[in-house]
């Protein structure tokens, strides 16, 4: 634990908000860097220090970094991902920050020889972090249940098929709550356990298996169809997502790692657990 506030970027997003809650539960002072402070205030109220600003706003960022020792670096997939995170990391070092914990891309998107624009951006940031004079750890989570699996569940509840180019290609889905648990631990512990940690859930789960689990829960067959082709001229985020689908279809996401159990001392949450929590009777009635 550090007596200085931990600065959390991306705190209003899907994962950032979970990390903030875990740091607060540990009794850790937290400062959030939010370009929409009203959203952060609705989420966290008076429990955090508020620093308003966007990554592009260097004055606000410098102010936010004052007195901070540990930084959580998180931002969305965009054409600015690498340049923004590298600039934030450099300012953090200049401001005296002593540790950076980064939410990176999935391991299977990094080192693909140019086949993942977001993986290449995360790789460039990781390389930069490792060149700095302070310790850092980059967490590389496999695909999150709360994003791709949640989308699949939403589609199925709306009577649409599961989209998959290869119904036998599994994914070692991870629950975002496990990523947040580990990020909070790496921000609060005496030392970091990386430079890089590769995270997954407990099993690689195929679209066939997800269709079977959902079919059993909702009482009707769940079809699987290939996704529409993506256009190479799409914007950065959509191109990145199209590239993910191609890499997943090759089986590159079909692995698990023991990192969560090894470092947190509990098994990672499972897809079966996520489906039973998400596909409630109320969700079924709405669908
Ligand atoms: N989903 C997956 O399966 C998966 C797997 C591996 C890695 N990842 C990585 O996870 C990251 C995305 O995490 P997420 O889904 O939690 O993100 P998210 O929900 O899209 O949240 C993004 C956060 O960044 C903030 N933000 C965006 N642009 C900003 C700017 N210019 N200045 C200041 N703050 C800004 C947003 O603030 P606002 O609320 O104001 O928009 C929000 O708090 C990406 O780097 C991705 O590569 C995702």
Shape descriptor:
globular
Assigned CATH superfamily = NAD(P)-binding Rossmann-like Domain
Q: Please give the number of β-strands.
A: 9
Alpha-carbon distance between the two ends: 44 Å
Spell out the blueprint of helices and strands.
Elements: E1 6-9, H1 16-25, E2 30-34, H2 37-44, E3 49-52, H3 58-65, E4 70-73, H4 81-94, E5 99-103, H5 117-131, E6 136-141, H6 145-157, E7 162-163, H7 176-188, E8 196-199, H8 207-218, E9 224-225, H9 236-249, H10 259-264, H11 271-278, H12 281-286
Parallel strand pairs: 1-2, 1-4, 2-3, 4-5, 5-6, 6-8, 7-9
Helix pairs in contact: 1-7, 4-5, 8-11
The structure holds NADP nicotinamide-adenine-dinucleotide phosphate (NAP).
Please describe what this structure looks like.
This protein is 44% helix and 13% strand. By secondary structure, the chain is an alpha/beta fold. It has one domain: NAD(P)-binding Rossmann-like Domain (Rossmann fold). A seven-stranded parallel β-sheet has the order 3-2-1-4-5-6-8, with helices on both faces. It has a two-stranded parallel sheet with strand order 7-9. Strand 2, helix 2 and strand 3 form a beta-alpha-beta unit. Helix 1 crosses helix 7. The longest helix is centred in the middle third of the chain and has 15 residues. The chain is globular, with a radius of gyration of 19 Å. The mean pLDDT is 96. Bound molecules: NADP nicotinamide-adenine-dinucleotide phosphate. The site of NADP nicotinamide-adenine-dinucleotide phosphate has 26 residues, from helix 6.
């Amino acid at each position: 634990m550090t007596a200085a506030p931990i600065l959390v970027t991306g705190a209003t997003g899907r994962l950032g908000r979970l990390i903030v809650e875990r740091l607060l539960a540990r009794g850790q002072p937290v400062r959030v860097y939010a370009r929409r402070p009203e959203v952060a205030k609705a989420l966290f109220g008076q429990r955090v220090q508020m620093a308003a600003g966007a990554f592009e706003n260097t004055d606000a960022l410098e102010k936010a970094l004052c007195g901070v020792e540990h930084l959580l670096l998180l931002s969305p997939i965009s054409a600015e991902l690498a340049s923004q995170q590298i600039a934030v990391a450099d300012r953090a070092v200049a401001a005296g920050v002593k540790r950076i914990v980064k939410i990176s891309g999935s391991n299977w998107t990094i080192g693909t020889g140019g086949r993942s624009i977001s993986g290449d951006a995360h790789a460039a940031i990781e390389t930069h972090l490792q060149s700095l004079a302070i310790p850092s750890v980059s967490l590389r989570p496999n695909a999150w249940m709360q994003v791709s699996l949640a989308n699949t569940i939403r589609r199925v509840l709306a009577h649409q098929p599961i989209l998959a180019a290869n119904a036998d290609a599994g994914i070692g889905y991870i629950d975002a709550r496990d990523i947040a648990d580990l990020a909070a631990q790496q921000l609060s512990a005496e030392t970091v356990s990386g430079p890089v940690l590769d995270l997954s859930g407990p099993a690689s789960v195929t679209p066939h298996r997800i269709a079977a689990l959902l079919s059993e829960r909702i009482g009707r067959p769940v079809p699987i169809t290939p996704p529409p082709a993506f256009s190479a001229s799409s914007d950065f985020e959509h191109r990145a997502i199209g590239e993910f689908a191609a890499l997943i279809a090759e089986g590159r996401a079909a692995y698990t790692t023991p990192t969560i159990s090894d470092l947190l001392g509990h098994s990672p949450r499972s897809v079966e657990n996520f489906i039973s929590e998400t596909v409630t009777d109320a969700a079924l009635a709405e669908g």
